[in-house]
Amino acid sequence: MECEPRLSRDEFDEVLVATGHGRHHEGELARSWSSVVPLRPAVLPVATMLSPSSVPAGSRAVVRGAALTFLDAALALTEGRGATFVPAPGRPGVLLHQRGPGEPATLLPTSRQGILLDAKPDPGTPAAEVDAAVIAGAAQRLEDLDRRDPLLAERLLAEITSAAALLLGGPEDHPKVQATLRSGAAPDARRGAEQALRRSVDVALGHRAPGAAWALGRAWSRLYPQVTAALRGSDMSSQQWAVLQRASRTLERFAFGPPLVTAQKLLAMIDSGAVDLSWLDAGVSPTPAGILPSSSEVDLVIDAVLAPPGLVTLLDPLPRQLLEERIVAVRPGRRGAMVDADGTALDVSGRRREHLALIGRPTEDDVIGHDTLNRHLHHEIENWAARVAATAAEEGPCDRGRPE
User: Fold this and answer.
1) pLDDT tens digits for 363-380?
2) Domains plus CATH for the chain?
3) I want to staple 167 with a disulfide (CB 3.0 to 4.6 A). Which of 153, 180, 215, 371 is the partner?
């Protein structure tokens, strides 16, 4: 006998929210842009947002943002417009930007920090190698941290800086490592974003001895599984969370920047004049209303700042409803929904809201590190699937949905 239909159009056994990046958010320029200078409100999808009609050949474009999405835009507007990058004769590790006819004249990135992401060493190269014993010891200490410790953030960061100092040379390098983390950049970043980028590329190529930024980046990336485990579902105070977030923004610039070849291409664009860092070094940026320091020299603005993770600053209907109707809960000072080990939403008292699960960016700060794109760090989706499959097996294919 065939089973009767189990679901009507408005009945569901499970709801899984896995929306990834939000579309609209409180910080987007498009919300209040009133300048006569045209705005491209996003980078993606590139074919629509950065088409030749939207970003004409020969134009000067300010880019809000200087991180990975800016690099996506820069490559789309150079390589995607016919440019090529070739090795510079007699200069190992240096690329030349041979410009294409459809490129904009200049891109001017901007950011609040005024610096670029450091290049990541290629896997398997000497600059990517670290002392395994140092990492193993630090990993064990991170696993032993008490998640109820009111100073959890400070103790976690102390383990990261201690490991970085040992990777760099020894305990005597600890003050240098701490100073770099505290300032938010390696010392030569104060001489401009270009010099900091060149330093990271030279280190990645093995042309320069590693410094504190390299050591912090390697410690953070190698110990990130233990970091995410220690912080998952943490009830630490808003003050401790703010301490951790300030430090993690710096650590992630050192650890999770672009691949080496992408950083080399960016340097080639700087050398060719396709990328101008003057606004980045000056610390200027478009205001939400579209006020520019020098609008007469700008043809358009590209907003390359993605919606932040979590739910609290998103303007899309679903996250607003989840928050406004208190369907999900967010800890003070955090951005994402509280969830159980299988992604099931939790209320403010920690009780499960059965049949509603959230996975990925909507849970950031409760579950840590979705932007690493490392599926081995998080097990919520597998746990959710196993629970749903087990429930289906117990009930049988014809049992659910029948009237009592």
Assistant:
1) 999 999 887 777 788 899
2) 15-22+310-395 (no CATH), 29-117+259-303 (3.50.50), 126-255 (no CATH)
3) 215
